[in-house]
Design brief:
- The radius of gyration is 42 Å and the shape is elongated.
- The chain folds into three domains: about 90 residues, SH3 type barrels (Roll), CATH 2.30.30.40; about 90 residues; about 60 residues, no CATH class.
- It is α+β, with helices and mostly antiparallel strands.
- The protein is built from seven helices and 13 strands.
- The longest helix has about 50 residues.
Length: about 280
Amino acid sequence: MKHLILIISFVICSLTGLANNYIVNSKHGLNVRSQPSVNSNVVATLSYQTEIEVNAFEGDWAKILWNEGEGYVNKNYIVPSKANVEQGKSTSWSFWGWLFSFDGSFWACVKWLFIIVFGLTAGFFAFEFIGRILAAGLGVWILTLMVCVILWMFRIIESETIWRAAKWGFNIGLVCGVIYVILDFRNVVSEIFSSGSSSSCSSGSSCGGGCGSSSYNDTWNDNHGSVFTDSSGERYVVDGNGKRHWLWSDYESSAHDDGGEEWSIHGDSAEKVKR
């Protein structure tokens, strides 16, 4: 009957995963007792590195199963077995392990594409920010160096003071650059985007139609506008670029502006006549 109970307990622990593999870590052996107490009977002595299965922990005692039965041992003298530790490592989830893993699946490709795009974007902004900060530091460094050289020429400071002051100027410039980037972050980002878009259109023939469209828009704005009348009855045209052109002729359908350009009037809109 006792052996039947042990077999049933072993099967239940194996199926539910409650049993954990441990080994004896005491080189002098480990006593197995019938109850979780030092005053209980010693039913067996386990040798060093003996593998056992722990069903439960009760205070400082571990209820174990081994090939001869069950009992209690002091938990301070047992450690998880190597197989149990390796299993725990293999089943544990790591964010960095997941982030840099690649199994060839579709989602792994999407993940790495996102990582590459994010890394390039972050690197671009970091380069721009660091460049502005270094520019501020170098600017203050050059200014400090020039002032110190002038003071040295007039024998006001010693030569050793020049480089010491220039070093402090560089550090102060870096701090000012960081403060500028933080306080004016939105405008800095806008300038980075605008500089990137303008630089993409400054490569000559490689620009293609992008720059041509910008030039076309400027020309269109110069040649089209809206007609207004001020309080004194004088008419003027405001073109697409916001420039005002005063009209000096009284014709309803056409007029000349103060620059000698002829405009064709269509109600509230005007178009410059091409010559």
